Amino acid sequence: MTDSRVMDFVLSQTGLALFSLLLTVFCYFGAKRLYKYHRVWWLAPIVLAPIVITLLVFNLKIPLPTYFEYTHWLMAMLAPATIAFALPIYRERNLIRQYPLTIGLGVTAGLFLGMISSWLLVKFVPLPVELSKSLLVRSVSTPFAMEATSAFGGVPELTAMMVLITGVIGMLVCEPLFKFMRIRTSLGKGVALGASAHGAGAAKATEIGQQEGVIASLTMIFIGIAMVLGAPVFALIFI
Fold first, then answer.
1. Which residue among 46, 184, 228, 239 has its CA within the 20 to 30 Å range from the CA of 149?
2. Taking the complete model, does pTM exceed 0.85, yes or no?
3. What does the pLDDT look like over 93-117, one tens digit per residue?
């Protein structure tokens, strides 16, 4: 291809869409590599990558439909990722047998406190209808939240954003809260992070310790499953 044809392709809708996909993947893996060597919260991929991508898309004036033309396939990968959650449940079945009551209470408390806090926020803060309905399932992991939000009349993309914000906040405030509440056990930290900050919380729990990470992942998975299965009933209660 000549230089002019290459430039025409880059500036075309297809070229911009492909560039957007490559940009998203590059930003994620770049942030992941930086965070590997510099463990500061603002370099975490869940924080840095969305900010950099948003700034670049805005400044390069890439239309959102063009950006999502190919990047939506990344979101589609959440479906097989959800199925893969069955692996840690099977692998850590002995841990589930060892602490069934603690994990069960953590799942129940995390599920209902997450929905009740969201409902109270929606009740007392005037928000657009779409945002209000999308907010109700913010306390479960993205694959489960995007599946469950339809029962509440929410918008999956908005729900994913709310989940992201919830996870980042939980990841940032967890350690000061653990000190303040004097939570010292691996089980307590893992359940708390998995129940309140889902994927980001599980990643943070893994940084704290291996057992914390495993427990956080199990809690996150069970809460997500409970939300998806109970979404039609929860929607009748909270809407």
1. 46
2. no
3. 888 888 888 888 888 988 888 889 8
